[in-house]
Design brief:
alpha+beta, 3-stranded mixed sheet, 3 helices, 3 strands
């Protein structure tokens, strides 16, 4: 398995539309990626390119991020 890349803007869009099903799919795939020994990259795609935001290598870090995302729903 390879690293999983999540676009922060996509997460923000799903938050605005309250699409918890899609968020659940993203976080489940991210969890699977970490369990298989790879990392999850958070990026922000902009007109000028891609900006790295954060990376997660542990389930606890991912869970902390997931909780912060669901806080705004």
């Amino acid at each position: 398995m390879q690293e999983y890349i999540i676009d922060v803007m996509a997460i923000e869009e799903l938050q605005m539309t309250h699409n918890t099903d899609a968020l659940d799919v993203i976080f489940q795939r991210a969890k699977s990626t970490i369990v298989n020994g790879e990392q999850v990259q958070l990026i922000r795609k902009q007109n000028m390119g891609v900006t790295p935001v954060n990376e997660f290598t542990t389930l606890q870090d991912l869970e902390n991020y997931r909780q912060s995302v669901y806080t705004y729903l």
